[in-house]
Amino acid sequence: MKDAILTFLFIVISLAFAAIFEIPLVIGFAVALILVISLVLRKGFTTKDVALASLDGIKRIKPVLYILALITLLIPAWIMSGTVPTMIFYIVNWIEPTWILLFAFMIAALTSFVLGTAIGTLGSLGIIIIGVAITVQVPIALVAGALVSGAFVGDRSSPLSSAFHLAANSVEVDPKSLFKKMIPTTLLMLSFSTIFYFIIGFFIEPQGVVENVEVTSLLNEFFQISFISLLPIVVLFGSILLKIRTIYSLGLGVLTGVVLAIFFQKLPGVDILENLAFGYHHSNEGLEAILRGGGIITMWQLFIFITLASMMNGILDKTQLFKVFMKKMFEKAFSLTNYTAKTVVIGIIFAIVGCNQAFPVMLTGRSLKDTWVDAGFTKEDLGRVVCDSALVTSGLVPWNMVAILSAAAIGVSTLDYALFAAFLWVGPVMTILVSYFYKPKQQIELQQKIAT
């Protein structure tokens, strides 16, 4: 129990200290990692154990590093190809600032449900919608929150989502039965988020960057605005729908964008390489405010951060520091509501310390499966709670890999969008409410037994 609390405090305090004193978070996390390693060594593990666990963690996140690298290339590639400028050109002609939050949430939710991936959705739509937000003079943190919320609808609920299948596998239930069990919270979370963005939209006060007419005219002047420029979107979406791996789909999206930049937008090769390496920049001030981001070299801190996070993940997985903590959590729990609330807390803690989305989902599901069954509750209910807590709240933790990738895809930091990512933080609340009002036969029998 003590080890779990210390680990949690090491991570939170180190990162809070870094944030308060404006030190790069990667340094704060490095300090936390050193403290956790010291704790593990004092418990009797050897330096070899720590090294092997760290190496194992790094091996597991190679695909994440590849995806991050491709996203940093995709953004400038799609701007140079005219893909992003063309989408902005057409969308700003009919979108009203009042509706952009609701539009961002719904288009991202629909896309992510079809594609089954939050990162694929944000990688393809994120920079486009953020560019539209800047053009129509809406605070980008609000729109980023709506986009991330929508993207996680598919990550949590889509039959094509690897995260959803991981949750079903961790509690050993059929994905179809888990999907049905999640319907009440899915509808509640979607309804709340829709109302949230609908209401917030009426309070938006445009802050003014450049007038829409001026922007469309600038886009026309500096880019070939054509439906041909949308080819990279078709290639990326088509690849994902054909179930080609996300890494290869993103790679095809980048390649298509670069080909169009060379042969359709007629950009010099030197400019293309510079933008891919250091991020897209434009000589025109108006366009510079709208079209920006990416660049593989500019993201070096994120690559180091992910490497350190994977080491932490490997060490926690090897040492099982939270085993006693989980056992004690359920000593005085009896009702479904108690079990749900305690599981939510555990899932969120694991999302904070685990550093990736898979770790809290797997550890919460696998560790508590027998505990829930022994108490007379279904594994489907546990799966619902895991999806509504550990899975979605990972996107709110700045050092969690899924949050890092989301922030990189839209060019907005996790801390900036977290408050407005309603779908992510309302999940734990809704799943507790559903458990409170849902009275399964097993719970009624248990309460009667306790009463007698």
TrEMBL record:
The chain crosses the membrane at residues 7-40, 64-92, 99-119, 125-153, 186-204, 224-242, 247-264, 297-316, 336-359, 417-438. It is found in: Cell membrane. InterPro entries: Na/H_Antiport_NhaC-like_C, NhaC_Na-H+_Antiporter. Residues 150-437 form the Na+/H+ antiporter NhaC-like C-terminal domain. GO terms for molecular function: antiporter activity. GO terms for cellular component: plasma membrane. Keywords: Antiport, Cell membrane, Membrane, Transmembrane, Transmembrane helix, Transport. It is a multi-pass membrane protein. Pfam families: Na_H_antiporter (PF03553). The keyword Membrane applies. Belongs to the NhaC Na(+)/H(+) (TC 2.A.35) antiporter family. This is Na+/H+ antiporter NhaC-like C-terminal domain-containing protein. It comes from Anaerobacillus isosaccharinicus.
